[in-house]
Design brief:
The chain has a 4-stranded antiparallel beta sheet with strand order 3-4-5-6. Strands 1-2 form a two-stranded antiparallel ribbon. It has 168 residues and is of the alpha+beta class. It has helices spanning 2-58, 62-71, and strands spanning 76-77, 90-91, 96-106, 109-124, 134-143, 154-162. Strand 3 (96-106) and strand 4 (109-124) form a beta hairpin. Helix content is 40%, strand content 30%.
């Protein structure tokens, strides 16, 4: 009888350990999915900024584009927006903004696939100069529509974009 009780206790501890592993695995999967979505979003934003910057340089309005974008008075469409339902999704610099990606279910019904919050900062290089040669762009992304915006839950991305019209 004691051996059977001991065997049940050992089995219960083993099953409990498996449940803990499943829970940890699901948390890791969720975190990895959020990190991937943030990286895809950052890639789309940076690609669009580079394209808009090159177009502005060709039209000799590079400084005006970056000045208006950094002030938050101009926004840009997200690259590959057709992948998500909301093809009118735009990104702007300055404050903390939220983007929600939806998936069509049928007819006019959609469900939210994922949401993220972001803060985009653009400043000339060096910071006290004009918008003539290079822009430093920092994108901070938080998973979800709500929650803390501390550094623990944030993914940060950085790039530098040169003015192709001013390169030697």
């Amino acid at each position: 009888m004691i051996e059977a009780a001991l065997a049940i206790v050992v089995l219960a501890v083993g099953v409990l350990a498996v449940f803990v592993l499943f829970s940890a695995g699901l948390d890791t999967k969720t975190r990895a999915s959020g990190d991937t979505q943030a990286a895809l979003f950052a890639d789309g934003v940076f690609d669009t900024l580079r394209a808009e910057s090159a177009a502005a340089s060709e039209q000799e309005r590079w400084e005006g584009f970056w000045g208006a974008f950094a002030d938050g008075t101009t926004n840009i469409p997200v690259a590959a927006a057709g992948v998500w339902v909301d093809s009118n999704m735009v990104v702007r610099a300055g404050g903390l903004y939220t983007n929600v990606y939806s998936i069509p279910v049928g007819g006019t019904t959609t469900i939210v696939d994922h949401a993220l919050r972001y803060q985009l900062l653009a400043e000339p290089e060096p910071p006290d100069s004009s918008w003539t040669n290079r822009v430093n762009v920092t994108l901070k992304v938080w998973e979800g529509m709500f929650g803390a915006t501390n550094g623990d839950s944030m993914a940060a991305f950085y790039t530098e974009i040169d003015n192709p019209g001013r390169l030697p």
